Amino acid sequence: MSEQQHGLRFGPIGEGAVHLCVDMQRMFDAGTPWATGWLRKVLPQVVQLCEAKAERTIFTRFIPPRSAEEASGAWRRYYKKWEQMTLRTLAPHMVELLPELAMFVPPAAVLEKRTYSPWARPDLLHSLVSRHVDTLVVSGGETDICVLATVLGAVDAGFRVVVAADALCSSVDETHDDILHYFHKRLGEQIEVADVAEIIDGWAV
Q: pTM of whole model > 0.85?
């Protein structure tokens, strides 16, 4: 991504911004089939965002069903493949936030979800609107799955969206890069891609 494409192209981040950190949980760390290889590489940048704006941070947590039989539609087939990641098999603590991030709760909030997108929970949008939120700074993983669903839903809702490029992770480098390119190429009027240092510096309020 070129210098012209990168950064806070629409000016500083105002007081109506919230940091939405997507699914930075133990089950996506090392030791599970869903481990995201470079989660630990981006964790320091996610921590920096939380340190700067803990009271303006919302963590999402992806919660699998207890078993494949409890899932509906194509999710049932999905969890039959990943039965070891259902709550019947997975250790309870694995759905928790990484310890480095759990320490920010409170004042940070936590939203549980059972789909890639947090917008399936209507209370998220209602909460943001009631707080007069107009901008979402998005970090977390995976870039090409849950982050993508989160960002597209935010665009649909009309939020200014700032994607924290160096605070995102995926298990597939190529699709991570493709999604960041896609955000600029197709959604450049609604999505900005910037590094955490620039975001914190530009979020002065």
A: yes
